[in-house]
TrEMBL record:
CDD domains: Radical_SAM (cd01335). The gene is acgM. InterPro entries: 4Fe4S-binding_SPASM_dom, Aldolase_TIM, Elp3/MiaA/NifB-like_rSAM, PqqE-like, Radical_SAM_PqqE_MftC-like, rSAM, rSAM_ACGX, rSAM_sf. It holds the Pfam family Radical_SAM. Residues 1-213 form the Radical SAM core domain. The keyword Transcription regulation does not apply. SUPFAM superfamilies: Radical SAM enzymes. The keyword Cytoplasm does not apply. Its cofactor is [4Fe-4S] cluster. SMART domains: Elp3. This is Radical SAM/SPASM domain protein, ACGX system. Keywords: 4Fe-4S, Iron, Iron-sulfur, Metal-binding, S-adenosyl-L-methionine.
Length: 345
């Protein structure tokens, strides 16, 4: 069976918000807003399909920005996706959604629409835009009514970690189909997510307890344990067990960087991971992605280089988040700052 390969495709930097943790504006708040033209978008799309043909993968696109719906050729791109029967998810803002727009997205084949909640009302609106909290919750209904899966994503930092349990309650009350959280990746302006390892483990424990209570009550929200440190937590609590038969030097889970994911920016720059600031590996306008994958991407697949994880029995399943590690000191293979596991030499 063919596996999916995911392309996180930023088609524009245009956005209605200036979020305090946005990667686009983290380095230069006055940067020029980049956007792909239609010819570049077509070329990028077919470059991705070529990649999947070469490696026997099925393409999956995460269309994002900025806010992708602001791109003048947004609907034209979705028509191209539909023509080739390619599944996709939209990562965007709530401001331009209504029942008509969501129904149109569904007709073009949109499977999921991801929105962000980064705190309760005061905190979220401080991070993003006044009024954004209430609008986001309102638009969950629009997405659901169209038959698209609504996804709420929270970026966790020291600023909002105590609010995550309340966010879960709010998301469930508004009937979001999926909820997940990931940690903030530090940028050049801030080198720490301000969360101690054991505090993060406590968050996982608190959320796990809440997830189980909701699931037992028949809650329809799916709780996606996206952060790879969930694997460590579930290993310690007996939920995850290392299989008796495993192949040496095989990777079975954890970070998809170097395995089944690439990010493409509006400039055409290709990144191993958007959350890893220094991970440019090529340019989709100049390079064949199939070549980039076996050459420049190889440096992200040397699992022996993980300074802490390479000594851990969970190497093939966890590895924490290299993006968070890289954000702290620029080293992709450094120890995850929130990993609480003690490793003995």
């Amino acid at each position: 069976m063919k596996q999916y390969f995911s392309f996180q495709w930023h088609i524009t930097d245009e956005c209605d918000q200036r979020c305090k943790h946005c990667y686009i504006f983290s380095e230069d708040n006055c940067k020029k807003l980049d956007v792909m033209n239609w010819k570049q978008m077509e070329d990028t799309f077919y470059n991705c399909l070529d990649f999947c043909k070469v490696y026997g993968r099925l393409p999956y696109f995460y269309i994002t920005g900025g806010d992708p719906i602001l791109h003048p050729d947004f609907w034209k791109l979705l028509a191209l996706m539909k023509e080739h029967e390619i599944p996709f998810t939209i990562l965007g803002n709530p401001f331009h959604l209504n029942d008509e727009v969501c129904q149109r997205l569904k007709e073009y084949g949109c499977q999921k629409y991801q929105l962000s909640l980064d705190g309760m009302r005061e905190t979220h609106d401080w991070f993003r835009k006044p009024g954004s909290f209430d609008i986001t919750l309102e638009k969950i209904g629009c997405i659901n009514r169209a038959g698209i899966r609504s996804v709420i994503m929270t970026t966790v930092s020291g600023t909002n970690i105590d609010e995550v349990p309340d966010i879960i309650d709010t998301v469930v009350a508004h009937k979001a189909n999926v909820f997940a959280f990931a940690r903030y990746c530090p940028t050049s302006e801030e080198k720490d997510v301000a969360i101690e390892p054991l505090r993060y483990r406590q968050l996982l424990a608190d959320c796990d307890r809440k997830f189980k209570e909701y699931e037992a009550a028949g809650c329809e929200t799916y709780f996606n344990k996206k952060d790879h440190l969930w694997t460590l937590y579930e290993y310690e609590t007996g939920v995850f067990k290392i299989p008796e038969t495993v192949e040496e030097n095989m990777i079975y889970g954890g970070c998809n960087c170097g395995n089944c994911h690439l990010t493409i920016l509006p400039t055409g720059d290709v990144y191993a991971c958007r959350r890893v600031q220094n991970s440019k590996v090529g340019n989709v306008f100049e390079d064949r992605l199939a070549d980039v994958w076996v050459c420049q991407m190889e440096s992200y697949r040397d699992y022996r280089k993980f300074e802490k994880c390479s000594k851990c029995e969970l190497l093939a399943w966890c590895r924490g988040c290299p993006a968070v590690a890289s954000g702290k000191d620029g080293n992709f293979y450094a120890a995850d700052p929130q990993c609480w596991k003690e490793i003995t030499e």
